[in-house]
Amino acid sequence: MAKNPDPVTLMIANTIKPGKLEDYRIWVKGISEAARQFDGYEGTQYIKPPTGDNHTVHSMIRFRDHVTLSAWEESEARQQWLDKLPELVASRQAEKIEGIEFWFEPPDAPLLKPPKYRMALVTLLAIYPLILFIPPLISMLLPNDVPRFVAILVSCLCTVLLMTWAVMPAMTKIFSFWLFRKK
Q: Which one-letter DSSP state was computed for residue 158?
């Protein structure tokens, strides 16, 4: 597999068998602890099923890149935990999402995504300071005779790169308690 430096998120929806939710919670703690031991593991977010739901639990497992995710996916430790899963879940869906794709909702996505207004607010909190500070910094670094459109292009490029690989992954982690909350 070719190296891909982009973070990757494995989105999973498990429909828990009736009466197995507490056993599933114990299983989740165990597999999360096992994943934590692997290089590149960046965290797991779980969304509890709302009352009256068919007990579908959504989870997002983040790894630094495809290489570290593959090491986890191909590990014996993961396989041992997955072998216990059929007695707990009725169905399972999984999807890999790379880098910034996590912020774009596919039209027929079966997995839970944050509400758009929450994504918009977190994005605003992330981009506002960048827009305040990057253009003046770029104008100080570029020669005075550089055309305005070039300075704007460089500012936009710096903002997009920072948002994609630094700011939004951090903001997602910081605000995950609110972004993925049901209500």
A: H
Record the pTM: 0.55
How far is Cα 174 from Cα 125, in angstroms, rounded to an integer?
Answer: 12
Token duo for residue 20: 């197995």
In a domain, 88, yes or no: yes
Structure tokens at 151: 């300075």
Stretch (H or E) spanning 167: none
Domain range spanning residue 98?
8-109
> C-alpha angle with apex 169: 181 to 164, nearest 5 degrees?
130
* DSSP classification of residue 155: H
Closest CA to 172 of 12, 7, 51: 7
Report residue 178 CA to chain centroid gap. Answer: 14
Nearest to 151 by CA among 162, 161, 163, 137: 137
Model confidence pLDDT, tens digit, residues 12-58: 888 889 989 889 889 988 998 999 999 989 888 777 665 555 578 88
Q: What does the alpha-carbon distance between residue 98 and residue 10 come to, in Å, rounded to a whole number?
A: 9
Give residue-wise pLDDT tens across range 79-108. Answer: 999 999 999 999 988 877 765 555 544 433
Residues 19, 40: one domain?
A: yes
Pair 52, 9: CB distance under 8 Å = no
Residue 91: both structure tokens together: 């169905």
